[in-house]
Amino acid sequence: MTSPGRRRLAATAPAAVAGMFAAGCSGVQSALEPAGREAAHIDELFIGVTAFCTLVFVAVFAAAGVALFGGRGLRARLANDRVVIGGGIVFPMVALSVLLGLAVYVMSFGGSAGRGTGLRLHVDEAMASEAARESGLAIAVSGERWWWRVTYVLPDGRRFESANELRLPVGEPVPVLLTSPDVIHSFWVPKLAGKLDMIPGRVNTQTITATEPGVSRGQCAEYCGGAHALMAFYVVAMPPDEFSAWLAREAGPAAATGAAEERGQALFMRYGCTGCHAVRGTGARGTIGPDLTHVGSRYSLGAGILPNDAAAFARWIRDNQHLKPENLMPPFEIFTDAELGELAAYLEHLE
Amino acid sequence: MRGKQFERSRWTRLLRHAAVILAVMLAAGTLFVWSGVYNVAASDDHWALTNWLIERVRVRSVATWSAFVDAPPPLEDPDLVGLGAAHFEGACTPCHSRPGDPRNAIVAAMLPPPPPLSRSVPELDTSEIFWIVKHGLKFTAMPAWPSRQRDDEVWAVTAFLLRLPDMSQQGYLEASGVTRAGGTPKSDAELAQSNESLSLTECVRCHGDASRPPLADLIPVLNGQPRAYLERALDEYAARQRESGIMQPVSSLLRPYERRRIAGWYAGLEAPPKAREESRAMRAPAGNDRTADRSEAIERGRTLAHEGDREQGLPPCLACHAGRHPENFPTLAGQSAAYLESQLRVFRGDARNASGYGEIMTVVARRLTPRQIGDVARFFASLPPGDAPAPAEHAR
Q1: Which residues contact A100 (CB under 8 A, 6 or more apart)?
Q2: A39 neighbors A190 (Cβ within 8 angstroms)
Q3: To pair with A279 at 20 to 30 A between CA atoms, which of A238, B31, B91, B140?
């Protein structure tokens, strides 16, 4: 009946489909390529459950096949009371109970029950300091519209801000305290851990343990407004000694300004940028928008939507309302191309 | 059977007659238009019947359409009346004449001639006056307000017109600033050369100079503003980027070099004398604040101007409007609270966001609550004129 062509198609199709799916399994945002302890547990659970479900699926279809086409003897055995009660009642109950237990067990990794903080806009300071003392470092992340305010809290009480990027030491569990000032977001780095909601007036804590150095991408996983899809970030896991060196640099003030960046800095200081943005070590102390002290060293601009280069800085300053509609920054169409270049040079040099 | 036939033929006949009558009327109409017999001359008044019909249509139309006019602001506000008077002198007197003056001979030859307002205003409701000033009147020379976004300005003229019937000639000349503008040219030769009677572009009449404050608190002080800002403002008015039925006509009459020179002159001018300053700074826009409330408002405004409000996404005003702010940004210190408040409200609409600078301020103004608008306006009005000092954290 079957032609050779059809046979060949039948043989290659599953491989092609499998290849397509496999291509979607790799990359900086794949839960199937875990680089963190919590994500690894989730991955194990996923593999286990999928395998188990596949077995049950095959068994059910085999039984159905026997019931329809099997010989008299086989069918009689299938109709046996013990098979019906065992396979129809006892097995599902046991299997579902085990699955439930497994789910509860896995949920205990990483995420922890939220804690109300009253109607407070940002992560409770005492709470973050306590977490930092216990773990050596805590990171508070606040979901803004539509970017991530990241505050590193050290055991000695020091704290400093960054945005749209997290850096983690490999092998050390780091508590990440999640909240939001206004709408619900969800913090999700598939390669490192499961997702956890960021809820106004409440702090949810997620512990992340990176197991290998590298870059992972995270994404807001709860619809939070028009620019929800443009709210991403990067997480960089570094070997502990490199991380300490980075942390010391990051905690410090902005790089000194050379002659090339002076004009850009003057524009930044005079044209109101300081009203919303801080650059530590200068007079700029705004807290409405992202801290720009070391913005030049980040992986991306605009919360994961632009590469970090001079052209992107210039585009963002002038066209940010087109790049991310309704974000809170006004468009600055008042600058000439030359002035935009000077501003971009200044910001890019803030490494 | 017979009756029915009779019926049908009667209807057919009727229809045929109607068609013939219609065709004759069409042909007659066409002939009438084509022949040019109808006289469109303004020298030839309408028939009494036509006049009566036109007037009925106008009265009914104004009454119906003005029913949709929003509630007015407090029209007794002397600053609103002052602004209206100042604009009336520049833009309306060419046709409507100053109170007490004879009608210009050219204007008197218009059809219809513009009515003497002191007589026609009392016949109209407040909302009808507003509607006519805003929309103008078809088939007359009454133009619509040049900007659709500035009802606040239309209300100012309305507030003035309500006062007009009771105003003496001298009272009008003072209210509209005529008495302090220009003066007589110095010599006979100058008089013979400069026969310019247009008072629309006399900046000083409304905005004052080093010795006189603006005519009303809703008119901004220009003295000491950055030159680049003043020039930009005039250019934006002329290009109709910044909405204003009052300033667009003024600006479009000025040549670019005149705008530059006027901007430079005002930029170098000292603040007007202190005499009215206290009252300007302290007077509330609506004029009914208690002193304690006022100083509380000023304090709230000071906090907002220095620190902004993070929860509302409000940057501190002084991040742009202080210290070493660029030449393209206006100085706010010493401006009247009434003017600042009115402009912040204008910013919240779509009237000032056509320029890159306006776009930025529009974003900020829309985040302010009405109370905060009053607070920051009072704070800046309470400062001495000149550059507000930059707050410490923004200085470098």
Answers
A1: none
A2: yes
A3: A238
Q: Assign residue B137 a region: left if phi > 0, alpha if psi is -120 to 50, beta otherwise?
A: beta
What would the pLDDT profile of B7-46 be if each residue is shown by its tens digit? 678 889 999 999 999 999 999 999 999 999 999 999 989 9
Strands A138-144 and A196-198 come out as: unpaired
Lowest-confidence range among A7-11, A294-298, B338-342? A7-11
Given an 8 Å threshold on Cβ–Cβ distance, is A283 in contact with B324? no
Residue B20, Cβ neighbours under 10 Å: how many? 10
Q: In what order do the strands lie in the sheet with A165-169?
A: A165-169, A232-238, A214-220, A185-188, A196-198
List of residues 6+ apart from B210 with CB closer than 8 A: B223, B269, B270, B271, B272
Q: Is the Cβ of A333 closer than 8 Å to some Cβ of chain B?
A: yes
A201 vs B: CB within 8 A: no
Residues of chain A positioned with their CB less than 8 A from the CB of B393: 283, 285
Segment B367-376 mean pLDDT: 95
- Across the interface, whether the CB atoms of A269 and B396 are under 8 A apart is answered yes
∠ Cα A320 A228 A335 (to 5°): 5
Q: With a threshold of 0.80, does the pTM exceed it?
A: yes
Percent of all residues in chain A with a pLDDT value above 70, rounded to a whole number: 88
Helix (H/G/I), strand (E/B), else coil: A32 = coil
Is the predicted ipTM greater than 0.90, yes or no?
A: no
Residues of A in contact with B391 (CB under 8 A): none
Q: Where are the beta strands (DSSP E) in A112-180?
A: 115-116, 138-144, 147-153, 159-163, 165-169, 174-179
Q: What is the C-alpha to C-alpha distance for residues A315 and A83, in angstroms, rounded to an integer? A: 69
Instruction: Answer whether B394 sits within 8 Å of A285, measured CB to CB.
Output: yes
B40-91 pLDDT per residue, tens: 999 989 999 999 999 999 999 999 999 999 999 999 999 999 999 999 999 9
Judge whether B127 and B192 are in contact, CB under 8 Å: no
Note whether B233 and B260 are within 8 A (CB).
Answer: no
Chain B residues touching A278 at Cβ < 8 A: none
- A334·B357 Cβ contact <8 A: yes
Chain B positions in Cβ-Cβ contact with residue A254 (cut-off 8 Å): none
Q: What is the CB neighbour count within 10 angstroms for residue B152?
A: 18
**A233 touching chain B per CB within 8 A:** no
Which of B58, B89, B111 minimizes the C-alpha distance to B197?
B89
